Amino acid sequence: MTEDKTPWTGSEITGAAGVTQTATETSDTVAAHPGITSTKNTSTQEETAAMAWTRLAEGEDYHAVALTEHLGYAGALDWLEEIRAGAPIPESLRAATARWSARYDAQGFARDRELLNRGYGFTYPGSPTWPRSLAQLGEQRPLGLWWKGNIAALDRPTLAMVGSRAATDYGEKIATDFSYELAERGALIVSGGAIGIDAAAHRGAILANAPTAVVFASGINRPYPKVHQELFARILDTGGLALSETAPGNAPHRHRFLARNRIIAGLSRAVVVIEAPYRSGAINTAGHAHTYGIPVGAVPGSIYAMCSTGCHRLLREGAVCITGVEDIVELLGFSAGQQFVQDRARVAEGNTTAAHRGASASRTVTHALAGGVQLGLGLTVTDPLAGDPRAVRVRDALPARNYQPLDKIAQTAGMGFTEVMAALGKLEIAGIAESRGGKWRLTPQARESSRQRAT
């Protein structure tokens, strides 16, 4: 398999709908436009508006981050309402405004807020419970996080443990054993809740009767995968935590998994990969960690095992070789054998200050790895949609059976009508989408391909 050697400099960023613009340009546009001025709002207004923005925008929507940073959440929502009422739109924000307007749903915002009365929580930048480590994500930070469980668990030193869904018994045993011992020492294991390595990592912490955190790619009240409902319940029962940046009820589309991975990395002092194919979600998480300067470790496997090719790639490109728990202890910035400092009383009292990152060694993973972050979306290099995130997002929004109108597809994809129509044209030519009476769905061939990807 040929490696992607494309240089990745970080000088340009691709927004939620694939709109390329530097973060500085977006911020400058917002700050310079005379019609975009900030106002003071109460904390309750800010929280309510921040919840709304998690429904309006997808993860990694740099335009939304810039707008809410400049105006505040409530001010940004007021500005969008003025735009919808006919106020002039800055040209560089026209596409973004179309995306947000397609999802504007005042009744949906009210339903989301009702979750606070049903055992769910919400945090956003500036609130006391916001994880400070997420500041390192910069323009990639989430607009907010929905949560359930014990958010004070984030006060512990956090380690991301990720890997393949198609894990071997060897890989799952390593994940469970490492997680158990590290959790006993006071670490919080964070992962994505997927079948395979993720689940084994969560179970190890549960066996130690210690908290663990799962970050969903779906809405907080729609845990995925469904086969892990019992596991997710046990995570909460042992003082753990579930998190999601996407609005309640949202489905786990493919782009949300990739966006979710940056949060797993950003919450952590270090990322350890246990069994991963050459291109995978785990490698994507490691790429994000490299971008943020977070140490990366990988567990070696058989040279004949496809499920370890990603780990071997990481090791070749500078990741730390993990052969035991003490390697991870050092990776987290402690001297070998030193126990994690934990104050159970402070955690029990609900102190939600994010753990200080501590010393972190400089671990070099090459630009080729970081470039892989941009090449995910579940595509192979020969996929007809490779390099077109708009088309991928629309494909993921198309129903498998019943035809849906354009406005519904645009709302699900979080894109403007013009962008959706352009993407549908490409999907139709590729044999992925079909229409009837102005409504659209996946073709039978695309449905089968989607089913195979899901398995």
What does this structure look like?
The chain has 19 helices and 14 strands. With about 450 residues, the protein is an alpha/beta fold. It has three domains: about 40-115, no CATH class; about 150-330, Rossmann fold, CATH 3.40.50; about 390-455, Orthogonal Bundle (Arc Repressor Mutant, subunit A), CATH 1.10.10.10. The protein has a nine-stranded mixed β-sheet with strand order 3-4-8-7-6-5-9-10-11, sandwiched between helices. Strands 12-14-13 form a three-stranded antiparallel β-sheet. A two-stranded antiparallel ribbon has the order 1-2. Helix 3 (about 60-70) crosses helix 4. The longest helix is centred in the middle third of the chain and has 16 residues, at about 170-185. The two termini are about 25 Å apart. InterPro entries: DprA, DrpA_SLOG. Belongs to the DprA/Smf family.
Beta-strand percentage range: 5-15%
Q: Tell me the strand order in the biggest sheet.
A: 3-4-8-7-6-5-9-10-11
Which range best describes the helical content: under 10%, 10-25%, 25-40%, 40-55%, 55-70% or over 70%? Answer: 40-55%
The count of β-strands is 14
Overall pLDDT confidence: 80
At the first level of CATH, the class of the largest domain is Alpha Beta
The total number of structural domains is: 3
Using the 3D structure, state the CATH architecture of the largest domain: 3-Layer(aba) Sandwich
Radius of gyration from the alpha-carbon trace, in angstroms: 21 Å
